Amino acid sequence: MDMKVESKGKVCVTGASGFLASWLVKRLLLSGYHVIGTVRDPGNEKKLAHLWSLEGARERLQLVKANLMEEGSFDGAIMGCQGVFHTASPVLKPSSDPKAEILNPAIEGTLNVLRSCKKNPSLRRVVVTSSSSTVRARDDFDPKIPLDESTWSSVELCERLQVWYALAKTLAEKAAWEFCNKNSIDLVTVLPAFVIGPSLPPDLCSTASDVLGLLEGETEKFQLHGRMGYVHIDDVAASHILVYEDKDAHGRYLCSSTVIDNNDLASFLSARYPSLSAPKRFEQLNRPYYEFNTSKLRSLGFKFKTINEMFDDCIASLVEQGHLPSP
């Protein structure tokens, strides 16, 4: 028996076939963990092929069925795991009933996973993937003071502007803290900015599709952002493992490498990748200026990759998968 594998123990990753979760599974396997991944349909070979091809998957990966909206459906996956990484989250296009389709799955899904965690005596720590959108949706902050983990987005503002994703993430994270504090579960949350990087699943999720659209000259999706934090997908996965393993880690952790305005992003992309059709500029929006203070994560020894690295790696992957022509 490989002792390194044994010593790292067993962890569960929810929504294991997703954009970020796949990368987290890859990193956990490389680190020597035994990973139980929950998916909607373990028999869907095409959708899960990228997970089975990961190094260490045949020896230390199990994929099991679970449904966010079914209470108790995570019991089997979580029982016996020392750690749980809850990354599964509905990122749906707003519909006629956003509350039912986005808010309820995010909140109830998180609570269903945590209810299963509560039943597991082996549990050491839970890491929940939240979002930097749980911090920056406010209209009363001082732009001269970078936003940090002590800030929460305004629920009232999110409802008024109908930014359902930020609202869902904010309410789900607050529900997680309330449940874990009440049930003495050791919780740490990671709040990534907009995630850029290679997609392991061949079918691009909405985040990766939006980036592909941007590189092909579409401005619509990014126009709404105005100003945005960006982070490499590998940094997000690595930070999840760091806050799980570091016994001093506690509370919330903002995970963002660079915050830039759309027009600076456009200038950067067109200068660095002249053969791509990335937009040269965006319509100027009157969006509040903000920066993120990521000193809390950096204090654990974390170093972020640059915006050059995240887009280089992302574009190389899109070219390799046939989504973009070779530059």
Features:
327 residues, alpha/beta, Rossmann fold, seven-stranded parallel sheet, three-stranded mixed sheet, 43% helix, 15% strand, disordered N terminus
Entry summary:
With 327 residues, the protein is α/β, with parallel strands linked by helices.
Please provide a written account of the structure.
The chain is an alpha/beta fold. It has a single domain (10-196, 230-257, 291-304), classed as NAD(P)-binding Rossmann-like Domain (Rossmann fold), CATH 3.40.50. Residues 1-6 have low confidence and may be disordered. It has helices at residues 3-8, 19-30, 45-52, 57-60, 75-78, 98-118, 133-136, 155-161, 164-182, 206-215, 220-223, 233-245, 262-272, 295-298, 307-320, and strands at residues 10-14, 34-39, 61-65, 83-86, 125-129, 187-192, 194-196, 227-232, 251-255, 258-261. Helix 2 crosses helix 12 (233-245) and helix 6 (98-118) packs parallel to helix 9 (164-182). The longest helix is centred in the N-terminal third of the chain and has 21 residues, at 98-118. The chain has a seven-stranded parallel sheet with strand order 3-2-1-4-5-6-9, with helices on both faces. A three-stranded mixed sheet has the order 7-8-10.
